[in-house]
């Protein structure tokens, strides 16, 4: 425990943001995907990106995660320029240090492969070659995301939407990444399942000390998970700040609209 | 039809030249799939059009050709390809493994050890070992490029999870010279150990998929496995009913309508040599 605390202290002393973006711009022809976005994400911090559909949230996320190449800007991960890396190094990073949780679990899972195989894929991708060890960590992670161990050999196509999403999270976190990108992790789930998933995510993020970038249009999700918030409109950042500050005292007209649009039950 | 109607070994010289260039590249980068301009051949895809083109590019008038299909010299595929080259190249043919200089094979490696100077040509239906795991060709090429072979082990993991052991019995993936993962064509995994450190040149031709790959002599070839579930070559727990061999790969043959069956060597030349009391693989012409 002491070692862990010292580790955290050392990281804080280092004062290098885990992920640092500046001037990230991505155009689709004449249209703007996202323009001139910049932020610093510190170790252990969760950044929420909110905005309506088409505001460039997902474009920004895929640029950050290296799935699209931005037209302009710089992205530094742990001090290293992600865009200047050779592709092999970037993909190695994406396999080991990063994780990407898709909105639709079908995009992030292999539907024809058992739950255990899905969780084990990243381990085997970084060189695990002992079946017993892979199996044990798969069982461990299924437990952590509240999937019964006896479902380990079932295919995810037989799982409910919420289970698929939890399986996707387990599959991504099994290699102990430091940075997680999440694209609408609760999209398409009903509210009670959403609540359980959020609870789980919050626990995992806190326990593992993960840094995360969460894209969502659901303000409740960022209220629960995010430390800081970035509000996007038409591809640009219109407001940033601490989550509670932005949600309780929105300054920009669009943020005010967004906050007041939330239905109260 | 006479020999004069066709160029030697059917293909024109420019085509053979193109294939030989692909073969040289394949030998230079063991296990790498080299694209080549596969030609229409006078036989359907799936009958060995890739192997035939590679054989045609390798043959010289002095060669002695052997063709086997599932180890047998006398099955339709083997007979028709052998006759094809008898007619179009006029080369000598043989059923003897040791007596042949070029051996075209479908789904087997002969039992008799090969020697330096021999060429073994495989017919390959699907050259891409990752194909059934990742359908996108662009993606599989990138995976080869970046050596991202974790997915191959996911397949083996699934085997163990479902069957308790690695149930892949043929087309068992191998890693060549610590670099490329390669599909050894649908040979039984019993034959996988023979791929490694083999004195003969091994060439793989996939006609429909237009790919050639190769193993130079004495290549390092390792069958993929897990530390706690190591690779095991498997064979039926019987002796050959004809020659009594206990170390050869066996075919299971159903002999009547009441379910009687016998096991016999799939390599007919090997079996016949043993029955005739000759040393292995020195069968009749």
From TrEMBL, chain B:
GO process annotations (BP): organic phosphonate catabolic process
Listed A to Z, the keywords are: 4Fe-4S, Iron, Iron-sulfur, Lyase, Metal-binding, S-adenosyl-L-methionine
- InterPro entries, alphabetically? PhnJ
Molecular-function GO terms, alphabetical: 4 iron, 4 sulfur cluster binding; alpha-D-ribose 1-methylphosphonate 5-phosphate C-P-lyase activity; metal ion binding
On whether ATP-binding is a keyword of this UniProt record, the answer is: no
Source superkingdom? Bacteria
Q: What class of enzyme is it?
A: lyase
Q: What are the EC numbers? A: 4.7.1.1
Residues in a coiled coil are none
* Catalysis: reaction(s): alpha-D-ribose 1-methylphosphonate 5-phosphate + AH2 + S-adenosyl-L-methionine = alpha-D-ribose 1,2-cyclic phosphate 5-phosphate + methane + 5'-deoxyadenosine + L-methionine + A + H(+)
Q: Which Pfam families match?
A: PhnJ
Does the keyword Iron-sulfur feature in the UniProt annotation? yes
Function (record text) = Catalyzes the breakage of the C-P bond in alpha-D-ribose 1-methylphosphonate 5-phosphate (PRPn) forming alpha-D-ribose.
What protein family is recorded? Belongs to the PhnJ family.
Q: What is this protein called?
A: Alpha-D-ribose 1-methylphosphonate 5-phosphate C-P lyase
Organism whose genome encodes this protein: Paracoccus siganidrum
Lineage of producing organism: Bacteria, Pseudomonadati, Pseudomonadota, Alphaproteobacteria, Rhodobacterales
